[in-house]
Amino acid sequence: MSNRKAAFRLSLNELMNEEAEDGTYNKQEIKNKLLAGNFTLAEIDTMLVSLMADNSIFMTDDTIMRI
After folding, report:
1. Matching InterPro entries, A to Z (predicted)?
2. What is the mean pLDDT of residues 32-61?
3. At 7, phi and psi to the nearest 5?
């Protein structure tokens, strides 16, 4: 796993741990916080799709959920 992908996973985990108690997260808020953390939109979209393919998360148009 690349260092960038590992950093992304760590950042996403931290955000998801502090965001919602019910396991559902606002996708746009998460993306905005990741953008502020120096990830590009292309990296964010690619890595979120990769995590969904790995069955780590589930996404709808508006939300991200842990599996």
Report:
1. WH_MCM3_C
2. 93
3. -65, -40
